[in-house]
Design the sequence.
């Protein structure tokens, strides 16, 4: 065998907990099947098949493009040439304009389409934001929630000189006093604070939406210390709050302080990888010049993806039109069809947890998310340790797939408290394989199986 190619500067990066679980799923599934057990999904945060059938999306795109061409074959060809040709790094202006109008209307702020930069999903937005701060070679600090999204951890730690300063979450959001202290500490440690990264609505994995009061405090802390905020927003439309009670997006509260990462993955479909970074904020460079972040993002984009797929962006534009090919004023009616399903799943999960485990509030608690796909379940008495072996046991013995929380904590949080997250698991209610009544039955069965498992582990009498 030939010797391996020497690559002493390369390093193997740790694999995120959600990926580890996804990788183990095939084996666990086979084991469960061999035992004649049904596998219950409370792990994956995937869109539900009932509300992510691509047929309508593709049909709408076709109709919209024909509408734009007006039935003229030459116009159709010219349009297709733009959709399958080289484009601008900013992508087609029509898609950005339509997005700016609809999203701005829905969340109550004015969006300048010239400050909207297409990204490859929210993931691409995260990557570009991190990359932007890495070029200097300086040590970088990220202010993050404890727990935070593993996608941010995975991306940020690709840079050797990155570190995390995390801020514990409670049911309203991060602690603003600790946030201020962490920013100060990072700077005292000689780090450049890149930004505070968060997910304000339907926090993944925190299973909460931040309260309005907490949002105001966060903005005050970050503005007061000159720290940029990156608001990752996959679940803004997957909201279970009445319109009048929905808290405001940080970017709507202060577009000059926040880069907002919209993604169409949950309100539309994840495959086309449509994301839009709303970047109206400006930053001051070392030499004192003030530049729009949008310009820096464009440099990132032109060096990484060069340009987004114009067909994908214009297909999303089609989605922003109704059946009459009139641009929608709002995506909330589209969201309502999705939240009807996710809301029902959420209700089944929360009702089931109450039914099966609500008699022991001293032992168990769980978050009631205002948006998104997740609830965090806490074993309050420290009797179980929710490590990898525990979640594997939940699968192997009870057929219930969940995600342990410990992997969602950045390294500083785990150094501060080696047991952090080891009394919690993340329960997802977004996904099942069946649709309609089969979906309802599957989610009911999943929460019943989880309830039975926990009661059995704790030696509590079963509840039917
Ligand atoms: C908080 C958060 N950010 C980003 C993503 C990934 O989004 P995208 O598909 O747009 O890359 C997810 C998806 O699960 C998420 O929960």
Sequence:
């Amino acid at each position: 065998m030939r010797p391996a190619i020497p690559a002493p500067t390369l390093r193997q990066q740790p694999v995120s907990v959600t990926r580890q679980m996804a990788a183990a799923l095939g084996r666990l599934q086979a084991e469960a099947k061999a035992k004649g057990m049904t596998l219950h999904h409370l792990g994956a945060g995937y869109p539900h098949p009932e509300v992510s059938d691509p047929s309508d999306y593709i049909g709408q795109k076709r109709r919209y493009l024909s509408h734009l061409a007006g039935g003229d074959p030459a116009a159709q060809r010219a349009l297709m040439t733009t959709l399958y040709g080289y484009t601008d790094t900013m992508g087609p202006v029509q898609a950005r304009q339509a997005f700016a109008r609809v999203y701005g209307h829905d969340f109550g702020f004015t969006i300048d389409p010239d400050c909207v930069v297409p990204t490859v999903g929210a993931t691409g937005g995260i990557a570009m934001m991190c990359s932007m701060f890495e070029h200097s070679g300086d040590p970088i600090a990220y202010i993050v929630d404890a727990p935070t999204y593993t996608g941010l951890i995975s991306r940020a730690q690709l840079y050797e000189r990155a570190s995390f300063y995390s801020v514990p979450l409670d049911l309203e959001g991060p602690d603003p006093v600790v946030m201020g202290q962490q920013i100060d500490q990072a700077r005292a440690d000689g780090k450049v604070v890149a930004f505070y990264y968060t997910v304000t609505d339907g926090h993944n994995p925190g299973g909460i939406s931040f309260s309005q009061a907490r949002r105001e405090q966060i903005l005050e802390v970050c503005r007061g210390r000159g720290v940029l905020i990156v608001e990752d927003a996959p679940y803004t439309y997957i909201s279970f709050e009445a319109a009048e009670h929905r808290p405001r997006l940080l970017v709507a509260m202060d577009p000059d302080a926040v880069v907002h990462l919209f993604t169409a993955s949950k309100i539309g479909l994840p495959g086309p990888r449509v994301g839009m970074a709303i970047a109206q904020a400006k930053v001051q460079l070392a030499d004192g010049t003030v530049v729009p972040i949008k310009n820096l993002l464009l440099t990132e984009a032109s060096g990484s993806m060069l340009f987004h797929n114009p067909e994908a962006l214009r297909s999303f534009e089609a989605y922003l039109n109704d059946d009459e090919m009139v641009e929608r004023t709002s995506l909330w009616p589209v969201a309502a069809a999705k939240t009807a399903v996710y809301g029902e799943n959420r209700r089944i999960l929360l009702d089931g947890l109450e039914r099966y485990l609500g008699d022991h509030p001293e032992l168990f608690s769980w978050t009631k998310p205002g948006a998104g796909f997740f609830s965090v379940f806490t074993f309050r008495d420290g009797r179980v340790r929710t490590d990898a072996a525990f979640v594997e046991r939940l699968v192997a013995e009870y057929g219930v797939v969940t995600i342990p929380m410990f992997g969602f904590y950045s390294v500083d949080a785990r150094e501060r408290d080696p047991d952090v997250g080891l009394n919690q698991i993340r329960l997802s209610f977004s996904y099942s394989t069946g649709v309609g009544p089969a979906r309802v039955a599957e989610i009911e069965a999943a929460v019943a199986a989880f309830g039975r498992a926990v009661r059995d582990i704790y030696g509590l009498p079963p509840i039917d």
About this structure: Residues 45, 121-123, 149, 151, 199, 204, 232, 234, 263, 265, 270, 275 surround pyridoxal-5'-phosphate (CB under 6 Å). The first helix runs from residue 17 to 34. The mean pLDDT is 95. Residues 404 and 425 are 4 Å apart (CA to CA).
